[in-house]
Amino acid sequence: ICEPLHYPTKVTKRRVQNCVCFCWILSAIFRIFLLYDHLEKPGSSNSCLGECVVIINYAAGVADLVFTFIIPILCIIVLYLRVFVVALSQARAMRSRVAASTTRRS
């Protein structure tokens, strides 16, 4: 949206594949970090046979909230605002061009 003529050179198939792989790898590492105690001692928090309980401490819960909810939401809001500002400026530029061309005709 910001630079449409440069889009094919900036966003290539290889770059998108790398970004998607990076996100999945980062997500897997983060989940392993959060579930490390559970993976190290599986079943330590189970009270009966067949129960699957995962207990996460307070710091890990806050980190989970921040890294998997708050930061992504903030990124989405910032990117949408950026697109909105660019679209608004393009709409204003088009209106001024239309207004200038109608003034010249009259």
TrEMBL record:
**Where in this chain does the record put each G-protein coupled receptors family 1 profile domain?**
1-106
Does Phosphoprotein count among this protein's keywords? no
Task: Please give the SUPFAM superfamilies that the UniProt record associates with this protein.
Answer: Family A G protein-coupled receptor-like
Bilayer-crossing regions: 19-36, 65-88
Please report the record's description of how this protein sits within the membrane. Multi-pass membrane protein
PROSITE patterns hit by this protein: G_PROTEIN_RECEP_F1_2 (PS50262)
Q: Which GO terms describe its cellular component?
A: plasma membrane
Q: What InterPro entries is this protein classified in?
A: GPCR_Rhodpsn, GPCR_Rhodpsn_7TM, TAAR
Q: Which GO terms describe its molecular function?
A: trace-amine receptor activity
This protein's superkingdom? Eukaryota
| Cellular localisation | Cell membrane
Please classify the protein's predominant subcellular localization into one broad category: membrane
UniProt entry keywords in alphabetical sequence: Cell membrane, G-protein coupled receptor, Membrane, Receptor, Transducer, Transmembrane, Transmembrane helix
Q: What is this protein called?
A: Trace amine-associated receptor
Q: Which organism is it from?
A: Gasterosteus aculeatus (Three-spined stickleback)
